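Homework help board

Subject: predicted structure for assignment chain

Our instructor gave us this sequence and asked us to write out the predicted structure in C-alpha coordinate form, then describe one feature. I got the C-alpha coordinates but I'm not sure how to describe them. Can anyone check?
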Amino acid sequence: MSNERGTLYLVATPIGNLGDMSARAIETLKKVDLIAAEDTRHSAPLLRHFSIATTTTSFHEHNEAEKVGQLVDRLRAGEDIALISDAGTPLVNDPGYRLVRAARDDGLRVVAVPGPCAAIAALSVSGLPTDEFVFAGFPPPRREARRRWFQERANERRTQIFYESPHRIVESLEDMAAVYGGDRAVAVARELTKRYETVLDGPLVAVVERVRDDPNQQKGEFVVLLRGREKREDEMPDEAVRTLEILASELPPRQAAALASQITGLAKNRLYRWLVNSGSGSSS
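My C-alpha coordinate output:
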Protein backbone atom coordinates (compact mmCIF):
# COMPACT_ATOMS: atom_id res chain seq x y z
CA MET A 1 0.00 0.00 0.00
CA SER A 2 1.28 3.46 -0.86
CA ASN A 3 2.05 6.02 1.84
CA GLU A 4 0.23 8.59 -0.29
CA ARG A 5 -3.47 9.24 0.16
CA GLY A 6 -5.70 7.31 -2.20
CA THR A 7 -8.01 8.42 -4.97
CA LEU A 8 -11.76 7.91 -5.27
CA TYR A 9 -12.76 7.03 -8.85
CA LEU A 10 -16.37 7.39 -10.02
CA VAL A 11 -16.62 4.84 -12.80
CA ALA A 12 -19.51 4.73 -15.27
CA THR A 13 -20.60 1.27 -16.42
CA PRO A 14 -22.93 0.15 -19.27
CA ILE A 15 -26.67 0.72 -18.98
CA GLY A 16 -27.28 -2.40 -21.07
CA ASN A 17 -24.85 -2.90 -23.93
CA LEU A 18 -21.51 -4.25 -22.67
CA GLY A 19 -19.83 -2.74 -25.71
CA ASP A 20 -20.22 0.65 -24.03
CA MET A 21 -17.71 -0.24 -21.30
CA SER A 22 -14.69 1.99 -21.88
CA ALA A 23 -11.09 0.79 -21.87
CA ARG A 24 -10.32 3.36 -19.18
CA ALA A 25 -13.14 2.05 -16.98
CA ILE A 26 -11.82 -1.51 -17.26
CA GLU A 27 -8.26 -0.41 -16.53
CA THR A 28 -9.37 1.62 -13.51
CA LEU A 29 -11.46 -1.18 -12.01
CA LYS A 30 -8.55 -3.58 -12.38
CA LYS A 31 -5.97 -1.34 -10.74
CA VAL A 32 -7.88 0.00 -7.71
CA ASP A 33 -7.68 -1.69 -4.33
CA LEU A 34 -11.44 -1.87 -3.80
CA ILE A 35 -14.65 -1.50 -5.78
CA ALA A 36 -17.65 -0.10 -3.90
CA ALA A 37 -20.67 -1.43 -5.79
CA GLU A 38 -24.33 -0.60 -5.29
CA ASP A 39 -25.16 -4.33 -5.45
CA THR A 40 -22.15 -6.68 -5.56
CA ARG A 41 -24.31 -9.53 -6.87
CA HIS A 42 -25.56 -7.39 -9.73
CA SER A 43 -22.06 -6.17 -10.61
CA ALA A 44 -20.40 -9.59 -10.39
CA PRO A 45 -21.31 -10.73 -13.96
CA LEU A 46 -20.02 -7.44 -15.39
CA LEU A 47 -16.74 -7.73 -13.55
CA ARG A 48 -16.30 -11.38 -14.56
CA HIS A 49 -17.02 -10.52 -18.19
CA PHE A 50 -14.08 -8.12 -18.23
CA SER A 51 -11.83 -10.34 -16.04
CA ILE A 52 -11.82 -7.84 -13.19
CA ALA A 53 -10.85 -9.65 -9.99
CA THR A 54 -10.72 -6.63 -7.66
CA THR A 55 -12.32 -7.07 -4.23
CA THR A 56 -15.81 -5.57 -3.95
CA THR A 57 -17.87 -4.18 -1.08
CA SER A 58 -21.53 -3.19 -1.05
CA PHE A 59 -22.38 0.51 -0.98
CA HIS A 60 -26.07 1.37 -1.25
CA GLU A 61 -28.70 3.73 0.14
CA HIS A 62 -29.28 1.56 3.22
CA ASN A 63 -25.63 1.41 4.36
CA GLU A 64 -24.23 4.59 2.82
CA ALA A 65 -24.15 6.56 6.08
CA GLU A 66 -22.16 3.91 7.95
CA LYS A 67 -19.89 3.00 5.03
CA VAL A 68 -18.73 6.53 4.20
CA GLY A 69 -16.41 6.76 7.20
CA GLN A 70 -14.89 3.34 6.52
CA LEU A 71 -14.18 4.13 2.88
CA VAL A 72 -12.72 7.54 3.65
CA ASP A 73 -10.43 5.93 6.22
CA ARG A 74 -9.16 3.52 3.56
CA LEU A 75 -8.61 6.39 1.13
CA ARG A 76 -6.67 8.27 3.79
CA ALA A 77 -4.53 5.16 4.31
CA GLY A 78 -3.52 5.20 0.65
CA GLU A 79 -5.97 2.81 -0.99
CA ASP A 80 -7.59 3.67 -4.31
CA ILE A 81 -11.32 2.99 -4.45
CA ALA A 82 -13.72 2.88 -7.39
CA LEU A 83 -17.42 3.57 -6.95
CA ILE A 84 -19.86 1.99 -9.44
CA SER A 85 -23.65 1.88 -9.55
CA ASP A 86 -25.79 -0.97 -10.88
CA ALA A 87 -25.68 0.70 -14.29
CA GLY A 88 -24.62 4.01 -15.77
CA THR A 89 -22.92 6.95 -14.09
CA PRO A 90 -22.60 6.83 -10.28
CA LEU A 91 -24.57 9.39 -8.23
CA VAL A 92 -27.18 10.00 -10.97
CA ASN A 93 -30.21 8.93 -8.93
CA ASP A 94 -27.89 6.55 -7.06
CA PRO A 95 -25.97 6.65 -3.76
CA GLY A 96 -22.58 8.33 -3.57
CA TYR A 97 -23.05 12.02 -2.86
CA ARG A 98 -22.16 11.67 0.82
CA LEU A 99 -19.01 9.75 0.00
CA VAL A 100 -17.87 12.29 -2.59
CA ARG A 101 -18.65 15.17 -0.23
CA ALA A 102 -16.74 13.53 2.63
CA ALA A 103 -13.76 12.77 0.37
CA ARG A 104 -13.62 16.32 -0.95
CA ASP A 105 -14.00 17.79 2.54
CA ASP A 106 -11.00 15.70 3.56
CA GLY A 107 -8.93 16.97 0.64
CA LEU A 108 -8.91 13.59 -1.10
CA ARG A 109 -8.69 13.32 -4.87
CA VAL A 110 -11.95 12.47 -6.66
CA VAL A 111 -11.75 11.50 -10.34
CA ALA A 112 -14.58 10.84 -12.81
CA VAL A 113 -14.25 8.05 -15.35
CA PRO A 114 -17.19 9.09 -17.55
CA GLY A 115 -19.38 6.89 -19.68
CA PRO A 116 -23.02 5.88 -20.15
CA CYS A 117 -25.86 7.77 -18.48
CA ALA A 118 -29.46 6.85 -19.26
CA ALA A 119 -30.80 10.38 -18.74
CA ILE A 120 -28.32 11.97 -21.15
CA ALA A 121 -28.60 9.17 -23.69
CA ALA A 122 -32.38 9.56 -23.73
CA LEU A 123 -32.14 13.34 -24.01
CA SER A 124 -29.83 13.08 -27.00
CA VAL A 125 -32.31 10.98 -29.02
CA SER A 126 -35.57 12.51 -27.75
CA GLY A 127 -35.88 15.33 -30.26
CA LEU A 128 -36.75 17.70 -27.39
CA PRO A 129 -34.78 20.88 -26.62
CA THR A 130 -31.37 20.06 -25.15
CA ASP A 131 -30.02 23.55 -24.47
CA GLU A 132 -31.63 23.61 -21.02
CA PHE A 133 -32.93 20.63 -19.07
CA VAL A 134 -33.55 19.45 -15.53
CA PHE A 135 -33.24 15.91 -14.11
CA ALA A 136 -35.85 15.08 -11.47
CA GLY A 137 -35.32 11.37 -10.76
CA PHE A 138 -38.32 9.16 -9.92
CA PRO A 139 -41.78 10.67 -9.29
CA PRO A 140 -43.52 9.58 -6.07
CA PRO A 141 -45.06 6.09 -6.29
CA ARG A 142 -48.57 7.03 -5.10
CA ARG A 143 -50.93 8.79 -7.51
CA GLU A 144 -52.04 11.69 -5.30
CA ALA A 145 -48.48 12.58 -4.30
CA ARG A 146 -47.29 12.07 -7.87
CA ARG A 147 -49.83 14.51 -9.29
CA ARG A 148 -48.85 17.11 -6.69
CA TRP A 149 -45.21 16.53 -7.61
CA PHE A 150 -45.96 17.07 -11.30
CA GLN A 151 -48.05 20.14 -10.49
CA GLU A 152 -45.09 21.71 -8.68
CA ARG A 153 -43.22 21.47 -11.99
CA ALA A 154 -46.07 22.72 -14.18
CA ASN A 155 -44.37 26.02 -15.02
CA GLU A 156 -40.93 24.54 -15.75
CA ARG A 157 -39.74 25.80 -19.14
CA ARG A 158 -36.74 23.49 -19.43
CA THR A 159 -36.97 19.93 -20.74
CA GLN A 160 -37.72 17.68 -17.75
CA ILE A 161 -36.20 14.22 -17.40
CA PHE A 162 -37.76 11.55 -15.17
CA TYR A 163 -37.09 7.89 -14.48
CA GLU A 164 -40.04 5.52 -14.05
CA SER A 165 -40.59 1.86 -13.25
CA PRO A 166 -42.45 -0.56 -15.58
CA HIS A 167 -45.37 -1.17 -13.21
CA ARG A 168 -46.06 2.58 -12.88
CA ILE A 169 -45.26 3.87 -16.38
CA VAL A 170 -48.89 3.95 -17.63
CA GLU A 171 -50.29 5.65 -14.51
CA SER A 172 -47.41 8.11 -14.46
CA LEU A 173 -47.96 9.11 -18.09
CA GLU A 174 -51.71 9.45 -17.45
CA ASP A 175 -50.99 11.74 -14.51
CA MET A 176 -48.62 13.82 -16.64
CA ALA A 177 -51.32 14.25 -19.27
CA ALA A 178 -53.82 15.29 -16.60
CA VAL A 179 -51.46 17.89 -15.15
CA TYR A 180 -49.64 19.19 -18.22
CA GLY A 181 -52.32 18.66 -20.86
CA GLY A 182 -52.53 16.04 -23.59
CA ASP A 183 -50.89 18.26 -26.20
CA ARG A 184 -47.57 18.62 -24.35
CA ALA A 185 -44.72 16.90 -26.21
CA VAL A 186 -43.14 13.89 -24.51
CA ALA A 187 -40.61 11.19 -25.32
CA VAL A 188 -40.48 7.79 -23.61
CA ALA A 189 -37.17 5.97 -23.98
CA ARG A 190 -37.26 2.28 -23.01
CA GLU A 191 -34.45 -0.26 -22.61
CA LEU A 192 -31.79 2.10 -23.99
CA THR A 193 -28.79 0.34 -25.63
CA LYS A 194 -30.53 -3.03 -25.24
CA ARG A 195 -32.06 -5.35 -27.81
CA TYR A 196 -35.63 -4.06 -27.47
CA GLU A 197 -34.78 -0.35 -27.24
CA THR A 198 -37.65 1.93 -28.28
CA VAL A 199 -38.22 5.69 -28.19
CA LEU A 200 -41.83 6.85 -28.50
CA ASP A 201 -42.46 10.55 -28.97
CA GLY A 202 -45.38 12.85 -29.68
CA PRO A 203 -48.21 14.53 -27.74
CA LEU A 204 -48.79 13.05 -24.30
CA VAL A 205 -52.27 11.86 -25.19
CA ALA A 206 -50.95 9.82 -28.12
CA VAL A 207 -47.95 8.37 -26.28
CA VAL A 208 -50.09 7.37 -23.30
CA GLU A 209 -52.38 5.46 -25.65
CA ARG A 210 -49.48 3.68 -27.38
CA VAL A 211 -47.92 2.57 -24.10
CA ARG A 212 -51.26 1.58 -22.56
CA ASP A 213 -52.27 -0.52 -25.57
CA ASP A 214 -48.96 -2.38 -25.99
CA PRO A 215 -47.86 -4.58 -23.06
CA ASN A 216 -44.36 -4.76 -24.56
CA GLN A 217 -44.05 -1.00 -24.09
CA GLN A 218 -44.64 -1.48 -20.37
CA LYS A 219 -41.55 -3.61 -19.81
CA GLY A 220 -37.99 -2.62 -18.99
CA GLU A 221 -36.34 0.55 -17.73
CA PHE A 222 -37.81 3.93 -18.67
CA VAL A 223 -36.62 7.48 -19.12
CA VAL A 224 -39.46 9.97 -19.66
CA LEU A 225 -38.71 13.39 -21.13
CA LEU A 226 -41.23 16.23 -21.15
CA ARG A 227 -40.96 19.41 -23.19
CA GLY A 228 -40.93 22.54 -21.05
CA ARG A 229 -43.88 24.90 -20.93
CA GLU A 230 -43.66 27.37 -23.77
CA LYS A 231 -43.90 31.02 -22.88
CA ARG A 232 -46.90 32.91 -24.30
CA GLU A 233 -46.27 36.18 -26.09
CA ASP A 234 -48.47 38.08 -23.63
CA GLU A 235 -46.99 36.43 -20.55
CA MET A 236 -45.44 38.63 -17.88
CA PRO A 237 -41.63 38.20 -17.69
CA ASP A 238 -40.40 36.34 -14.61
CA GLU A 239 -38.27 39.25 -13.41
CA ALA A 240 -41.24 41.63 -13.68
CA VAL A 241 -43.39 39.23 -11.67
CA ARG A 242 -40.79 39.04 -8.90
CA THR A 243 -40.45 42.83 -8.85
CA LEU A 244 -44.23 43.33 -8.71
CA GLU A 245 -44.71 40.80 -5.94
CA ILE A 246 -42.04 42.43 -3.79
CA LEU A 247 -43.40 45.95 -4.33
CA ALA A 248 -47.05 44.89 -3.93
CA SER A 249 -46.27 43.45 -0.51
CA GLU A 250 -45.44 46.96 0.70
CA LEU A 251 -47.36 49.33 -1.61
CA PRO A 252 -50.86 49.76 -3.09
CA PRO A 253 -51.19 48.26 -6.59
CA ARG A 254 -51.06 51.56 -8.49
CA GLN A 255 -47.90 52.69 -6.72
CA ALA A 256 -46.34 49.23 -7.07
CA ALA A 257 -47.13 49.19 -10.80
CA ALA A 258 -45.76 52.69 -11.33
CA LEU A 259 -42.49 51.91 -9.58
CA ALA A 260 -42.19 48.52 -11.30
CA SER A 261 -42.67 50.26 -14.64
CA GLN A 262 -39.67 52.48 -13.93
CA ILE A 263 -37.59 49.44 -12.95
CA THR A 264 -38.59 47.07 -15.77
CA GLY A 265 -39.48 49.45 -18.60
CA LEU A 266 -42.86 47.72 -19.06
CA ALA A 267 -46.10 49.66 -19.41
CA LYS A 268 -47.60 50.76 -16.09
CA ASN A 269 -51.15 49.81 -17.12
CA ARG A 270 -50.06 46.29 -18.08
CA LEU A 271 -48.32 45.82 -14.74
CA TYR A 272 -51.33 47.16 -12.85
CA ARG A 273 -53.73 44.81 -14.68
CA TRP A 274 -51.51 41.85 -13.86
CA LEU A 275 -51.47 42.77 -10.19
CA VAL A 276 -55.26 43.13 -10.01
CA ASN A 277 -55.97 39.97 -12.00
CA SER A 278 -53.45 37.88 -10.09
CA GLY A 279 -54.74 38.97 -6.71
CA SER A 280 -51.22 39.92 -5.63
CA GLY A 281 -52.24 43.45 -4.68
CA SER A 282 -55.09 44.96 -2.69
CA SER A 283 -57.35 47.51 -4.33
CA SER A 284 -56.37 51.14 -4.02
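Reply (TA_rk): Your C-alpha coordinates look well-formed. For the description, you could write something like this. The beta strands are 7-11, 34-37, 56-58, 81-84, 109-113, 133-137, 159-164, 185-190, 198-203, 222-226. That's the kind of observation they're looking for.
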